[in-house]
Amino acid sequence: MSKIVFITGATSGFGEATAIKFAMVGYKVIITGRRRERLDALKAKLPHADILPLCFDVQNKEEVFQAIASLPQAYKNIDILVNNAGLALGLERANDAHLEDWEQMIDTNIKGLLYVTKAVLPTMVKRKTGYIFNLSSTAASWPYEGGNVYGATKAFVKQFSLNLRTDLKGTHVRVTNIEPGFSQTEFSDVRFKGDTQKAHQLYENTIPLLAEDIAQTIFTLAELPAHVNVNRIEIMPTCQSYAGLVVEKK
Ligand code: NDP
Ligand code: 8X3
């Protein structure tokens, strides 16, 4: 029987590439996001694959639980959850950043991820099988100017993944925290609020990670034997490395 994968934020970037990767090899894939037309277009692009679009906003607790409860019987026993939906908004220093942006990042990256996890987890625990991938970031561990709340939400995801792993001892449910670095998706278009030129400039003369690289990583981990759990994985493009600490001079 085909395994079932549930992916949040499958309308773009990592989520879309991951959906395509699993669907192409015969997994049943539930694709989710707020943009219904994107979900329908992805399904239409892969006519021979088993894809179920499910449109909801992860920030809306009722919508999340309702959508997951409404899954047809044939899609209820989710084997793999990819908690990917998320965003950064703005790159201003804390004093100039917008409180509404902070709230949206918290509501999406933290609370949305928790709602989906809470809705999917009971069936995994009951069935004593499952795999949860949480999309964190290098920003969880490596601070940078303007990363303030975005990085903090991803640090939450990292620690939640580790704590979840601890709670799930004995259930056979696996958890991996995925921590990508510099990657080219629609992420920067969203962060810079539609200033595509600014987003584009960021990637000029670089070879960033692509969505397919993260999809391949998730797929490879998912195919490991059930007794193997990779707890965290930090992935950067070769062109990216570490910066030093900074000192303010008089
Ligand atoms: P994209 O902007 O390309 O994709 C983000 C996805 O999240 C979209 O499908 C979007 O769908 C979905 N999403 C955002 N808000 C909501 C919401 N409220 N409800 C439901 N879905 C939502 O970015 P990436 O693919 O790059 O990002 C995916 C994840 O990876 C994010 O969590 C991001 O923080 C993380 N990440 C990204 C990195 C990068 O450099 N690109 C590096 C490290 C981590 P829709 O708008 O249709 O709702
Ligand atoms: C996205 C990577 O460095 O822009 O999580 O925060 S970064």
Automatic annotation (TrEMBL):
One of its GO terms (molecular function) is oxidoreductase activity, acting on the CH-OH group of donors, NAD or NADP as acceptor. The keyword Oxidoreductase applies. It comes from the Bacteria. The keyword Oxidoreductase applies. Pfam families: adh_short. Keywords: Oxidoreductase. Gene3D superfamilies: NAD(P)-binding Rossmann-like Domain (3.40.50.720). InterPro entries: NAD(P)-bd_dom_sf (IPR036291), Sc_DH/Rdtase_CS (IPR020904), SDR_fam (IPR002347). SUPFAM superfamilies: NAD(P)-binding Rossmann-fold domains (SSF51735). CDD domains: SDR_c5. Belongs to the short-chain dehydrogenases/reductases (SDR) family. PANTHER family: ALCOHOL DEHYDROGENASE. This is Short-chain dehydrogenase/reductase SDR. It comes from Sulfurospirillum deleyianum (strain ATCC 51133 / DSM 6946 / 5175). The lineage of its organism: Bacteria, Pseudomonadati, Campylobacterota, Epsilonproteobacteria, Campylobacterales.
